[in-house]
Write a structure and sequence with these properties.
This protein is mainly alpha-helical. The protein is built from 18 helices and two strands. α5 packs antiparallel against α11, α7 runs antiparallel to α13 and α8 packs antiparallel against α14.
């Protein structure tokens, strides 16, 4: 007689994959991916992912609205949370070199349900981030063409919808943001062709934008007016987050978007030659380099121009204009650097999301078609095309503000879960091989969790509501589709048959 022993609902939700099983599954995929990335490639990919909208757009608006010259401290505070989370990512990436990133780490530590939650949450980071940055790229592209008297009509380069706080959604009269859509589709084609070609393209872009940023810092120092730094921390207006000490923390939550991207490196683990060694190098060095550049740019910018004048879409250009004819030659280079910088961010985000889908589909939580790898290009081309198409649509119709806030809260939640996962795995599997170990566990992970939670708390209420709605949709998909198709569930059910 065949007897089915019922698995309790709680055990079903929190069934886990051991590290040994994850590594064994990775070996079966060895022939599918092209291991072409080195530590140097990872560092440049990290810089390419991090330096973008944050430094070219958000620095000025955050200084003008929240922190003033103390936006420098906001960058440092936000970087601390990223460094603590980055150390945790580095340990996980070295011991579980699989494309699933935080989703896979959660599966090994917190169980399937929370792994699904974080996988669904990562869509907010990678897919929506690529759309957000594409919208920012479109603004610089239109401005760049305007300098040459090439005018793109407003109806063809902005979102047809806008969201006004307290009033809701409204029509703008535009048709579609065509430049943003075109960028996403072009980069999608590049990613389908191959990871090596995408990496080479990114390397060139990173060199361009680093050169432009260093030029701004080097020449801008001579035009700093120290009085613009006083008061360094403007007096609070009476509203939490509007300058003062609270403004530093709110500013940190807003410009946190500037650091998004270093975690995307972990999704390329199966395409890295030596992930155990190279992943920690790529994650940590890209973070350190970008933090130094962010602080320097913020300091120079607020020194050249009073922070009240920086609430614009191109704050670096405003700082250059303040220097007069002496730096007018640098303005077109800044726009070229911005275009290059934003392009590389879109590339890395669009590279990361398909690999998350691939890993979730391998576990049975998404349709099997998402696991198909192109025979010639050795890329997950179906998920890449799907991701690119959806990202292009989102970039074409939604405004940058709404998208940016969603990306920030989704990423912060992922960081909190990864930091918690390190503490749990140290207890549940203390003997696992860890080529890189996060120092001072549990204190560093706890600090990472607290800093990220503090930044989440500072985000607007509407952003929290959108996160809740998004998560509710994800749970509906899990319970209707993924839960019963999970390979771990099927294997456990077969073992229960007697």
């Amino acid at each position: 007689m065949i007897v089915f022993s019922k698995i309790s609902p709680m055990n079903q939700l929190f069934r886990r994959k051991s590290v040994s099983i994850l590594l064994a599954e990775a070996k079966t995929d060895e022939h599918k991916f092209n291991r072409a990335l080195t530590a140097r490639n990872l560092v440049t990919l990290g810089i390419g992912a991090i330096i973008g909208t944050g430094i070219f757009v958000l620095t000025g608006t955050a200084a003008a609205n929240y922190a003033g010259p103390s936006i420098v401290l906001s960058f440092i505070f936000s970087a601390l949370g990223c460094v603590f989370a980055g150390l945790c990512y580095a340990e996980f990436a070295s011991m579980i070199p699989i494309a699933g990133s935080a989703y896979t780490y959660a599966y090994a530590t917190l169980g399937e349900f929370l792994a699904w939650i974080i996988g669904w949450d990562l869509i907010l980071e990678y897919l929506f981030a690529s759309s957000t940055v594409a919208v920012g790229w479109s603004g610089y592209f239109v401005s760049f063409l305007k300098d040459f008297n090439i005018i793109i009509p407003h109806e063809l380069c902005s979102a047809p919808f806008n969201h006004v706080i307290g009033q809701g959604w409204e029509r703008t009269g535009s048709i579609l943001n065509f430049p943003a859509v075109a960028l996403v589709l072009l980069i999608t084609v590049l990613l389908v062709i191959g990871i090596r070609e995408s990496s080479r393209f990114n390397n060139v872009i990173v060199i361009i934008k680093l050169t432009v940023i260093l030029l701004f810092i080097g020449f801008g120092i001579s035009f700093i007016h120290v009085e613009n730094w006083h008061p360094f921390i403007p007096e609070n207006t009476g509203t939490f987050g509007a300058f003062g000490i609270s403004g530093i923390f709110t500013g940190a939550g807003v410009i946190f978007f500037a650091y998004i991207g270093f975690d995307a490196l972990s999704t390329a683990a199966q395409e890295t030659r030596n992930p155990a060694k190279d992943m920690p190098i790529g994650i940590l060095w890209s973070l350190v380099i970008c933090t130094v550049l962010y602080v320097a740019v913020a300091g120079v910018m607020t020194g050249m121009v009073n922070y009240k004048e920086l609430n614009v879409s191109a704050p670096i250009a405003v700082a250059i204009d303040s220097a007069g004819a002496a730096l007018v030659w640098l303005r077109p280079f800044i726009k070229i650097g911005a275009l290059a910088g934003l392009s590389s961010v879109v590339l890395v985000m669009l590279m990361a999301q398909p690999r998350i889908f691939y890993t979730m589909a391998k576990d049975g939580l998404l349709p099997p078609a998402f696991t198909v790898v192109h025979k010639k290009f050795k890329t997950p081309y179906i998920t890449t095309i799907v991701t690119g198409a959806v990202a292009a649509l989102i970039a074409g119709i939604f405004p940058i503000g709404v998208l940016g806030e969603l990306v920030s809260i989704g990423t912060l939640l992922a960081f909190v879960i990864v930091c918690a996962g390190i503490i749990i795995l140290r207890r549940t599997d203390p003997d696992a091989v860890r080529p890189f170990r996060t120092p001072f566990v549990p204190w560093f992970p706890i600090l990472g969790m607290l800093i990220c939670l503090a930044q989440m708390a500072a985000l607007p209420f509407d952003t929290w509501m959108r996160l809740i709605i998004w998560m509710a949709l994800g749970m509906l998909i899990y319970f209707l589709y993924g839960k019963r198709r999970s390979k771990v569930f099927i294997n456990q059910s077969n073992q229960e048959i007697k």
